Amino acid sequence: MLYLFPLLAVTIWAGNAIVNKLSVGLIDPQAISFYRWFFAMVCLTPFVIMKVWRNRDQIKPLLPKLTTLALLGMVLNQSLAYFAAATTSATNMALITSLVPIFSLFLAIPLLKQKLSPLAVVGSLLSLFGLVFMLSHGNISQLSIGVTQGDLLLLISALVYALYGVLLKRWQLPLATWESVYMQGMIAVVLLTPLLFMSPSLAISQESAPLIMYAAIGASLIAPWAWINGIAKLGADSASVFFNLMPIIAAILAAIILNESLGIYHYIGGSLVIAGVLLVQMKPKLAANAKLACAK
Fold it and tell me: Residue 1: pLDDT above 80?
């Protein structure tokens, strides 16, 4: 039963890639970017606002860092994904997003003073080759033709989110998880307001409302809650492995809901990407086993 927590989180996040695609033509990227966090914060406020108010003196000096995190993780990352959805597939969205752990690994070198192991280098190169193979539709010499604007936006989005995660670890803000999420979300709403008014339409249609609610409640609140519980009960290493299921689940959902067809290059490239990420994530365990063997 404990494994249901990370599995639920990953399934919801995979479904969010489908929501991104379904939103194209129904609601402008500027609008859904704003409404997602606006309604998420409306739902979260009754549970968190009193704690945030009591800790306001502690929060005030952290506002510059919270603003930076909100800009990276909740404004740029999400907005880029919504803009990308118009010119890429849900399968590509999930596969490119799965590269976040590898981007994080390289960003951690200068920001966290971490070192790359040979296994991490091999895994990174394997994932990179898999991504190039997939985006080029199996013909690497035609990469420039196969890559879409949406793919490039997603690569930037994944890099931005990786930076968000590394900075979160570097700063170690002295706030409870949901207080930090709430403050970032509220700041994101403020930052996204100008973007909302740049949208050709501010209206929420009957068709777009369920998509907004899925993103706001499912992807922004329920999935993080399940993921945090999964980490608490299983540990970060065990829970993180489930993240690699996201592109697989997203591809299945995309085939069923969006009628996206998968080419052989998706299977080969996607498998290489996931295998590479798994190699990178095996690093801490292998290092621990090596130390244990030396101790014996």
Answer: no
215: left (phi over 0), alpha (psi -120 to 50) or beta: alpha
Q: Which residues contact 156 (CB under 8 A, 6 or more apart)?
A: 80
This prediction's pTM: 0.86
Distance CA 135, CA 227 (A): 29
CA distance 78 to 18: 14
DSSP strand E in 11-128: where? none
Q: What tokens appear for 205 in the block?
A: 């249609």
Instruction: Tell me 140's DSSP state.
Output: G
Sign of CA dihedral 227, 231, 234, 235: positive
Q: CA separation (Å) from 249 to 9, 98, 235, 254, 262?
A: 12, 12, 22, 9, 13
pLDDT tens readout for residues 227-286: 888 877 777 666 777 777 888 888 889 989 999 887 888 888 888 888 887 787 674 544
Q: Would you state the structure tokens that stand for residue 30, as one six-digit string?
A: 């500027």
- What's the token pair of residue 195? 């973007």
Q: Is the pLDDT of residue 29 over 60?
A: yes
Mind listing the pLDDT tens digit for each residue in 146-202?
678 999 999 999 999 999 989 998 998 999 989 999 999 999 999 999 999 998 888
Interior angle at CA 93, CA 177 and CA 213, nearest 5: 55
**Would you give the distance in Å from CA 255 to the centre of its chain?**
21
How far are the Cα atoms of 18, 64, 185, 206 from residue 182, in angstroms, in the given order?
25, 15, 5, 27
How far is C-alpha 64 from the chain's CA centre? Answer: 22
In this structure, the number of other CB atoms found within 10 A of the CB of residue 159 comes to 20
Closest CA to 143 of 254, 269, 271, 17: 269
Distance of CA 291 to the CA centre of its chain: 32
CB of 23 closer than 8 Å to CB of 85: yes
